[in-house]
Write a structure and sequence with these properties.
This protein has 549 residues and is an alpha+beta fold. The chain folds into four domains: 122 residues, PAS domain (Beta-Lactamase); 105 residues, PAS domain (Beta-Lactamase, 2-Layer Sandwich); 86 residues, Signal transduction histidine kinase, dimerisation/phosphotransfer (DHp) domain (Helix Hairpins); 180 residues, 2-Layer Sandwich (Heat Shock Protein 90). Helix content is 44%, strand content 24%.
Length: 549
């Protein structure tokens, strides 16, 4: 038999163990409530005593020692705008029974607002009178705010979709229209009430419905999330009045709850198509006009060359008195004028022919290795007399390792002559023109710098535009069309080169031409290493600085 003192010890240990288990259970419950932000409550309706768990006090921001837990005290923390609804819910449960489930706001002691959800049940006595109500309170502030944000976002998205000028159409897996915005109403002519619930075929011309179904089925089975469709693929829409129209569309697919939905954003491109056709027609007309212009220029230029050659020939005979003295100095002066005018007209005709050929793509380059020393020297010799007439100093500055360029000899010569002639024309008497050539990496740079009248900054960009005069452009201040620079720029472009213009009014202009260079060190013209000819294979001297005349 167990002795009494042993029984007492066993009983004490059992009671202690039970208390420990109860405490452990309470601690566990308290921790679970904290994690869930969920508290429990018990209201003795008869005594109006209200018991709150620790978590409810935390939710309400209340100090257990400073809060008289009663039903009225609880109501005092309910947001005034929600108070009536909470009281009504409590009264309905007390009168009719059932579950108590209400969400509302509470006001914290610091004035802050929280959202809570209360759930509970009612216990009745033997007579059916409510005597006790118990339940839970959960802080749902974060969820409520997230739901509010989601509702606001959805509302804004719905407003954006509804007011978008493009048609926004959403269909389900079966191809039934579920969303039809104002843009769709305007484009297709149907109201939303008429379109919603209808098959998408309502908006597609009959002759392309089959192809559209095949396309959408392929899209549905693919891994693509978005497809672009435009007028070039002959996407068509069908208006309520039966007219078809070209459209551009972007179609996206989404999977929600295992179902596939399609979202189409579509716009009417009828105006774009009409403008495209008009543009194409205008382009064809412009090309025809351009061809006619080029043919006219070529024909006119050829027709002018024959009498001009005769004028130049006969005036040359007269000015040099090959057939005997003219007898009057005035005749010689007139013959000089005729010859100069004829020479000018011939240069203009040649410019027109060159420009017409370049513009039509008929001008081809005869590619070879060109010695720049020779090309520059020959160009200077041609313009020396014109420079001497104005007492203009010509300076040639060559790099010793200049080498060669690959290009058309005649075209490069024409570029140099045009640049030098322009500089002479617009440089006052006593000025200076310097032509320099250096090699920079894989290219050769030729610069013609003068001390002329300069060009306004706003005019520089127009210098290479043919047939365009400007009152602010000194290069167009004399007679002629000013085709020299446009032709030069075109010839440089054909070589794959570049031209830059730098100028300052009353100080001068520098035009730089960049061309692809052959490897330095070998001069084909001279058959001699370039560095052994002291920088120039023609004139001699690393720096040929000469004054003509």
């Amino acid at each position: 038999m167990t002795r009494p003192d042993q029984e007492d010890r066993d009983r004490t240990m059992g009671e202690a163990s039970l208390e420990e288990r109860l405490q452990e259970s309470e601690n566990r419950l308290r921790e679970l409530q904290r994690i869930a932000n969920l508290g429990s409550w018990d209201w003795n309706i008869t005594t109006n005593e209200l018991w709150w768990s620790d978590q409810i006090y935390l939710i309400f921001g209340m100090d257990p020692g400073a809060f008289a837990a009663t039903y009225e005290a609880f109501l005092s923390r309910v947001h005034p705008d929600d108070l009536g609804r909470v009281q009504l819910a409590v009264n309905q449960v007390l009168e009719a029974g059932g579950a108590y489930d209400v969400s509302h706001r509470i006001v914290l002691p610091d004035g802050g607002i929280r959202y809570v959800r209360e759930r509970g049940d009612v216990a009745h006595d033997g007579a059916g009178r409510p005597v006790r109500m118990f339940g839970t309170v959960q802080d749902v502030t974060e969820r409520h705010l997230a739901e509010d944000a989601l509702r606001i976002s959805e509302s804004r998205l719905a407003a954006i979709i509804e007011t978008a000028p493009e048609a926004v159409i959403v269909t389900g897996k079966a191809g039934v229209i579920e969303i039809f915005n104002q843009g769709a109403e305007a484009i297709f002519g149907y109201t939303a009430a008429e379109a919603l619930g209808q098959p998408l075929d309502l908006l597609i011309p009959a002759d392309v419905r089959g192809a559209h179904r095949v396309h959408m089925e392929s899209f549905k089975e693919s891994h693509e999330q978005r497809r672009m469709m435009d007028a070039r693929r002959e996407i068509s829409g069908l208006r309520k009045d039966g007219t078809a129209f070209p459209a551009a569309a972007s179609v996206s697919k989404f999977i929600t709850n295992g179902d596939v939905i399609f979202v189409a954003i579509l716009r009417d491109v009828s105006e774009f198509k009409r403008a495209e056709l008009h543009l194409r027609d205008a382009l064809e007309d412009a090309e025809k006009a351009n061809r006619a212009k080029s043919e006219f220029l070529a024909t006119m230029s050829h027709e002018l060359r024959t009498p001009l050659n005769a004028i130049l020939g006969f005036s040359e005979i007269l000015r040099n008195e090959y057939l005997g003295p003219l007898g009057n100095n005035k005749y010689t002066e007139y013959a000089d004028h005729i010859f100069d005018s004829g020479e000018y007209l011939l240069s203009l005709v040649n410019d027109l022919l060159d420009f017409s050929a370049i513009e039509d793509g008929r001008h081809t380059l005869d590619w070879e290795l060109v010695c720049l020393h020779r090309a520059v020297h020959d160009s200077l010799n041609i313009v020396r007399d014109k420079a001497a007439e104005k007492d203009i100093k010509l300076i040639a500055d060559f790099a010793p390792d200049l080498g060669e360029v690959r290009g058309d000899r005649r075209a490069i010569q024409q570029i140099l002559l045009n640049l030098l002639s322009n500089s002479i024309k617009f440089t006052p008497a006593g000025g200076t023109i310097q032509i320099s050539c250096v090699r920079v990496g894989p290219e050769v740079r030729i610069a013609v710098a003068d001390t002329g009248i300069g060009i306004p900054a706003e005019v520089i960009s127009t210098l290479t535009n043919p047939f365009r005069h400007s009152t602010k452009n000194p290069y167009r201040s004399t007679t002629g069309w000013g085709l020299g620079l446009p032709i030069s720029k075109s010839l440089i472009d054909l070589h794959g080169g570049a031209m830059t213009i730098e100028s300052e009014v009353d100080k001068g202009t520098t035009i730089t031409v960049s061309l692809s260079s052959n490897a330095p060190g070998s001069c084909v013209e001279c058959r001699t290493p370039a560095e052994k000819v002291s920088g120039t294979c023609v004139s001699g001297g690393a720096r040929d600085r000469t004054k003509p005349g």
